[in-house]
Amino acid sequence: MAQQQRITITVPDGSFAAYLATPDAGNANGAAIVVLQEIFGINADLRETCDNFARDGFVAICPDLFWRQEPNVELTDKTEAEWKKAFALYNGFDVDKGMADVGATIQAARQQPGVKAVGTVGYCLGGLLALLSATRTDADASVSYYGVGMDKYLGEASKIAKPLLMHIAEADEFVPPESRAKIVETLKDNRHVEIHTYPGCQHAFARNQGVHYVDAAAKAANARTLKHFLSMK
Length: 233
What we know:
Layout: E1 3-11, E2 14-22, E3 31-36, H1 44-55, E4 59-63, H2 80-91, H3 95-110, E5 117-123, H4 125-136, E6 141-145, E7 164-169, H5 177-187, E8 193-198, H6 215-230
Parallel strand pairs: 3-4, 3-5, 5-6, 6-7, 7-8
Antiparallel strand pairs: 1-2, 2-4
Helix pairs in contact: 3-4
């Protein structure tokens, strides 16, 4: 059974909380995963995601990446008011500072007992950050679920030197078709990148209890993700 706790990570300009789920000692596989949030903060979906990774033997850490704007944000995708607040936080988010926090969380993960490899997985906003973790950090592997705004950062693609798995929703209402095509075209021949697209799926098709959840697609994507992380070196 996974063990959960709240930890604090310190960076030069402050400190922020992170949700930590750890596996039973007999089930630990020696790897950690940094789970990167959507625009809703560390909510029940992200905690469940961390707990699921811990049950599969991983240490899972989800950092509070909105802490500079408002610590401890916890929203859902169920109300208009929550969406409005989530978009305001997204629009106020500093990607470069956020990536510095991701890097600090990766290093915190490496300090966890028994951890020998660390990967990142991100959803929505976190999907972009997972892509950038493959270009800007020492993560051993990364997974991006329906990342938003990734086409703006494709100039960094040549820096990808570790395995990157990408899940792209073909009916993503937040990523225009031309942007999806540009992402696939730019990355398809990179030997470190594996891309899967999901026909008919909207944004956040793998969000636990999400309004656009698609069971078959989510299970397929999650199985690929698990295989990807189990092969980390």
